[in-house]
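Researcher: I'd like a structural prediction for the single chain below. Treat it as a standalone chain; there are no partners to consider.
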Amino acid sequence: MGNSASAKANQDLPPEPFDSSIPELKPENQSLDDIENAPLKDISFYPGTFEELPRKTKDVIATPFEGCMFQWNKMISSRFQASHTINLSSFKPSSYKFGTTYVGENKIGPHEQYPILIGEYSSGLVQFQAIHSFSKAVQAKAVIHASNKSWSMYQGDVSYKGNDFSVQLTGVNASIINPQGIWVAHYMQSITKNLALGAELMFQHGQGAKNAALSLGGKYHGDNFELTAKTGNQGTHLCYYHKGNDKVSCGVEFEYVDQIGECVTSFGYKIDLNNGLSQFKGSFDSAWSVTGVLEKRFEAFPFCFTLSGLVNHKKNQAKFGIGFTIG
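Model: Treating it as a single chain, here is the predicted structure.
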């Protein structure tokens, strides 16, 4: 027990970075009662939410785009921003998107201010999102999609963040008066300072049918790695993330979808270059797709240049993209 208890305390609280300068050492003759009566902060951590389990691995896997993309971000004031995005492609219809973002004055943390209001318009589809934190623990979010003068989708969720657990309830096109839509409940609980377990319960009601699905998941992490797993009626999702140093990180993802009986394994890596001004993401998967995305920022100018490429040797396909971002 002494070898495992001599690991560094890992507190995965989002506002504060992990501090590894002071290791926690415990004597060999420590009793079980001493461990059970130890302060909660020494044996637990904030586990995050259930839906965010594969977030770190997903972040290092390249996401390609096709064609030419131009984006212009304009700060109207210190709290209001507007953006224009144009996508040009010969394989799919070109599009234009206008977006706005407003950040309120309610400061919850060093880098958190609420409410946040986000609006987008593209090809007749209007999207609106509102996020507000009533305290450091309670947060609510609402999402509305409208098209052809009607609501095409509406979603609302409420989450609570404790010191060592998180709870989230989400409703999609849901109604309490007329039972319909999808309800999803998430729960995550840290068991030790390295292990967290959770569950997701989804209930769907509509068109005279009722369906329910249960998924179980967990996360085990160390100083420079994280292993997550989710499994249920819809399939299995396994992820492994490893941080080599401040500039290099990699991840492996395995996903099996039960409805179509298909599984895909992906490996990705991310490299930060030039003091964080340049970033390269590369990945390849079991479907014989090789992907790379290079992002270059300029220190003297608010400009970002992006190159994207995807090649599938088995299907004899290739897709390339180029992007320009100002602001």
